[in-house]
Specification:
It is built from 2 helices and 7 strands. The chain is α/β, with parallel strands linked by helices and 117 residues long. It has one domain. A 3-stranded parallel beta sheet has the order 2-1-6, covered by helices on one side. A two-stranded antiparallel sheet has the order 3-4. It has a two-stranded antiparallel ribbon with strand order 5-7. A hairpin with a 3-residue loop joins strand 3 and strand 4.
Length: 117
């Protein structure tokens, strides 16, 4: 499963989409990540996010722009566009239409525009 880059994963670079945290590697995971892992979930990567989750397009100065997998000239949405693309890639790689999940936690209520996938 992919974890949005707003959420700490122990030992994995977590930038919150900001150059200020470009080299931040948390010592401890967010409690929700710990819970997922205790129940057998496996974190395989982080998904891109706009800086601090603010914005309607998944772009930041650390990781760049996440593009729509069907048409790379278009946006993949935001602020969870990285998660949408991550889910798409997981479906492609394992070639089944089940069991690809992305944990999308922004720490606050927000409006998210998702890619049409």
């Amino acid at each position: 499963m992919s974890i949005k880059d707003l959420t700490d994963v122990a030992g994995v670079r977590t930038t919150y989409g900001s150059p200020i945290f470009r080299d931040h590697v948390p010592a401890r995971s967010h409690p929700l990540v710990e819970r997922i892992e205790r129940r057998g979930g496996i974190v395989v990567g982080k998904s891109n996010t706009p800086e601090f989750g603010a914005g309607g397009s998944t772009f930041n100065e650390v990781s760049g722009r996440t593009r729509n997998p069907w048409n790379t000239a278009l946006t993949c949405g935001g602020s969870t566009g990285g998660g949408a693309v991550s889910d798409h890639r997981a479906f492609q790689l394992i070639r089944i239409k089940a069991a690809a999940f992305t944990f999308r936690y922004s720490g606050r209520r927000n409006r998210q525009v998702h890619a049409p996938c």
